[in-house]
Amino acid sequence: MTEYGRGPGPEPWHPTDPLYGDQGWEGQQQYQQQPQHPQQPQQATPYAQGGQAYQDPYAQQGYGTDPYQQQAAYQQQQYQQQGYADPHAQAYGDQGQLHGQAQGQPQAYDRAGWDQGYDTPGQPGQAYDGNWETGQAAMAYNAPPADPYGGQQPDLYGTPEAYPPPQPPGRRQQPPEPVVDWEPEPEPARPEPEESHPFFTGDDENDHDDHEDEEPAGRRGRGGRGGDRERRGKEKKRKGKNGVACLVVAAVLVGGVGGVGYFGYQFWQGQFGEDPDFAGTGSGEVQVEIPKDSGGYQIGNILKKAGVVKSVDAFVSAQAKNPKGLSIQAGFYTLKKEMSAESAVALMLNPASQANLVIPEGKRNAWVYEELDKRLDLEAGTTKEVAFKQADSLGLPDWAKNHPNVKDPLEGFLFPASYPVGKGTKPEDALKKMVSRANAEYVKLDLEGKARAQGLKGPWELLTVASLVQVEGKYKHDFDKVARVVYNRLQPDNAETAGRLEFDSTVNYLRGKSTLDVGTVEEMRKIKDPYNTYAYDVKGLVPGPISNPGIEALNSAISPAEGPWYYFVSINENKTVFSVTLKEHNRNVAEYEKEREKSGQ
Length: 601
Hints:
The chain is built from 20 helices and 6 strands. The chain is mainly α. A hairpin with a 2-residue loop joins β5 (567-572) and β6 (575-579). The protein is elongated, with a radius of gyration of 66 Å. Residues 1-7, 22-138 and 204-224 have low confidence and may be disordered.
């Protein structure tokens, strides 16, 4: 228990005790005077009520002074030492005098008052227990207060730095605030940088609602109007910034939701949705070029950019569904805009849509020149003139240049294939592509190395042999034997032809024709031309190739079949007759004539 709580006595603390709570300390309740102690002069005491004397219990026990009076004096001394005035000295009236008397002499109490105790109306008297206040044994009168620390520790209440001793609840007050001689002036508030743009500040040039926030003039102090305006301006700016922040957050949320929705839709479309596609066969006309070795996705991208199909995936899907879809070749195609993917694939497989120039195997350069002039809307002979003038700048290899008596320097180098020739293409550009393709194929076949194996002087002669095989052999399955006939006739010591080739194709070449009716042998021998293999003075190969051979003819020239043949004649597609002697060959020619009569040729 605290020093103001209940003591260790057997009886409860009576509420009317003058020392109970605020009643005893503040003197709010007065009791009748008791006669003073016999040893002391008469003095009024507040501890008399109901005609009963309240005697000092300490006088009977031999104590010299009242411990409570000593405690009051001790507290008064502590206040004086610490510079504090007793906050209760004037406020408590008679009790202040009581403290003053306690310092001079002890207060006497009547024995009967102690024995009888004190009471309140309606309640029995209670014995006064001297230990109720502190919970300790009472001290003897006239004895100095006992040192609670036993002399070993300093009295913390006796130092200037000590707090005053504990006070009863009635006397407790807030400690006086320390006096401050001076206070530092507060630093002026620095205005925060604020946005000036109306979008961020929320200001509005037409906002005139100041009167709504104004207070009555009577409640406004000095500078009130300016302060109100400044406050309202800051609040408006703060609200404007909050609004902008809300807009930014809303925009981020909307953008996030929209992005997730868009990519989710795209994923669903890619996994489960149908590929976007046009309907119908389209309209208008557009020309596209498909590069070499292009796959389905590359072709689809080209068509989509040209506006032919709506999506790449739709074209790839349609190409896979078409059995011939993978056979689309490189080149120019004339198509329509906004076609369905299925119709675009079908049109590209139709030769009518191909804007390419396809050179068949065995065609002469003269035919190629004429076709280029037609496709490029050029005057007849324009492409041939370019070919002859720019032959050395079109990409020919060194071994194909500067051969004498050559009728066309590009003969044999316009390789049989499909070439993109669109509107606006220059003839020299088309010729370069063909020569480039021929060079690539000839390098693959290693014409230079293979020519020596056949006893030829170089790749130029091997190319010439292949051109002869291409036009003399009517069917590819006969190319190997035809190549063997060429090599056998080139032997200068052969008894049948004496080193002459005697091919009708060479006469047709120099004439610029393609016919079987070349005339009699005697008539052809009279033609003076290095390409006339019937002439007596023309032995060996002609000056150069007489056609553009394909891969099969080239392979046959490189690896001919083994045999003693010098003659051959094709009766029909399934029958080509080879012979060693001229007599045998004449019988085969008679059979060929009969076959021609039957077919009406």
